[in-house]
Amino acid sequence: MASQKQLSIFYQRIIEQWGNAHGLRTVCELTCRNFSESFGVIHSQLLVAYKSTWKTLLDMDHEGIHYQFPPIDVVSNVRITSEHVTKAISNHRPQYTTHGNIKRLWLPLERRSNIIGCLIVDLPSETQQACEDFSLLATLLASELDAGLLSQTIKDEHLGRRSAERELQISQHEQQNLLQQLQSLHEISFKLWRADSMNSMLFTAVDEGKKQLHLDRMAIFLFAKNQRMRGTYGTDIHGNTVDEHYFESEIPDLWFTAHTVSNEEYLAIENNTPLYHDLKQVGFGWSAYISLWDEDTPVGWIACDNLLTGMPLHDYHHYLLKQFGFIVSQHIVRRQAEESLIRLNKELEQRVTERTAELERVNARLEIISKLDPLTEVYNRRVFDQKIMEEWHRAERHQLPFSLLIMDVDHFKMYNDQYGHAAGDQCLKVIASTLAKLERRSGSLFARFGGEEFVLLLPGQDHNAAIFAAKRALSAIQKLQLPREYGVDDARNIVTISIGVSTMIPSIHGSPDEFFKRVDMALYEAKSQGRNRYCVI
Ligand SMILES: Nc1nc2c(ncn2[C@@H]2O[C@H](COP(=O)(O)OP(=O)(O)OP(=O)(O)O)[C@@H](O)[C@H]2O)c(=O)[nH]1
């Protein structure tokens, strides 16, 4: 009787409380609590057939009630397995099983001939309640469970769809951002291509890289020799792009060096890390390092961070930063090749200019040498032969006087015999330089004709001028007082010269050769008359 009363209170409370309950969770929790309070239940568990397997929706023990939707697997539950449940509900009716001092009530929850759940309640063994007494509860709970699960599933699906939509929206947004930024990368690449030098290219990379990729700070470092690296352009702590060529240091042995350079990777990112400016910590955030490569050789890196805004790095940034690093690497390599080619060309041009100047100097020197007599360094016979031809024809055209003097050292054979050939050479040099200085009028030419014989060509100069020149030459040599200590009848004991002189206005009937012979005859005459004199024909 007592058990009947207990049962009716149990049902009464359930019906009252369920009336105020909102949602499946409350219904389930109230049911188990009532079981516990009314019948001293030790453990109760509500399993549901969910997605073709048995799952735990609620578990109540002395620690409390655990309700979980979506329901969780019963795998970990060794007390009750799926096989136990399947067996217990096979006749669709409530039943007891005994486990030591526990009477376990298995209450199949059936809806439209389908078992949709099972309430398992561990009662004390002395419980008098017949298991059929709970059939009504099973019917009521099955109905609540059916409706509750359905609405929960719908709600869940709705939520799932909403969150899927939100994810889709986010991913579409990210996709759009990525597309926009890929377009930006293309624009950056174009600007880098148009930059007119390596420096302006690096400045553009930093400045545009930040703007277009929405990054707070960026700096580009290039590797130099001996494991060192130097700055190029970077960002100050206010976000301005600044020249950092002053910066030089050893390549630091840090995590990103190992990650990028040693592993031949493009990108290394660290979150929640100290951020630096000029090697001093200035903040905290993420920092990314992008390696720059020339094929397999690292040439530098780009450093970026979020010092100013603390903006998080998006997923698409990983791809963008790699692409950016790739583009900048390409431009650096191209620029370096171009600039070394320009340098090489400049060096070549410089060398060609130097060699050309040197060649011109040598040619000029050769030109002079080819015109000079090697011993006396006055004009040689080749120059005289050319000059007499030119001047002869000029004088002929303009009907101008034309004078020629042939000067010959007297008794020079004896000089050589007396003093030796070397002294003879020296004597010839002194005579030549003395005579060469005398005549400076334009067009005139003094040359060594050969041996101890010199010629003085005086185009445009008449008979008197020629005689003046001859006298002056004789006197100049006499004044030298070059000793000559060998006895010859007609001479004082100094070196002298004899001169043949002639002047004429050239005509087509004459020739330089004939004229020369005439002067030579005059010289012969001067020699015959006793030397140290001039003779005119
Ligand atoms: N040391 C020296 N002697 C030269 C050079 N060229 C010619 N001679 C010499 O000049 C001498 C010219 O001698 P000759 O033609 O016989 O006439 P000369 O002894 O001067 O007598 P005259 O002309 O008749 O007064 C020769 O002995 C040549 O060897 C030269 O470059 N150096």
Describe this structure in words.
With 537 residues, the chain is α+β, with helices and mostly antiparallel strands. The chain folds into three domains: 2-153, GAF domain (Beta-Lactamase, 2-Layer Sandwich), CATH 3.30.450.40; 195-341, Beta-Lactamase; 381-536, Alpha-Beta Plaits. 48% of the residues lie in helices and 26% in strands. It has twelve helices and 19 strands. The strands form four sheets. It has a six-stranded antiparallel sheet, sandwiched between helices. It has a six-stranded antiparallel sheet with strand order 11-8-7-14-13-12, with helices on both faces. Strands 16-17-15-18-19 form a five-stranded mixed sheet, sandwiched between helices. β7 (217-223) and β8 form a beta hairpin. The mean pLDDT is 90. Bound molecules: guanosine-5'-triphosphate. Residues 375, 408-414, 416, 421, 424-425, 428, 451-452, 527, 531 line the site of guanosine-5'-triphosphate.
Characteristic key phrases:
537 residues; alpha+beta; Beta-Lactamase; Alpha-Beta Plaits; six-stranded antiparallel beta sheet; 19 strands; binds guanosine-5'-triphosphate; diguanylate cyclase activity; EC 2.7.7.65
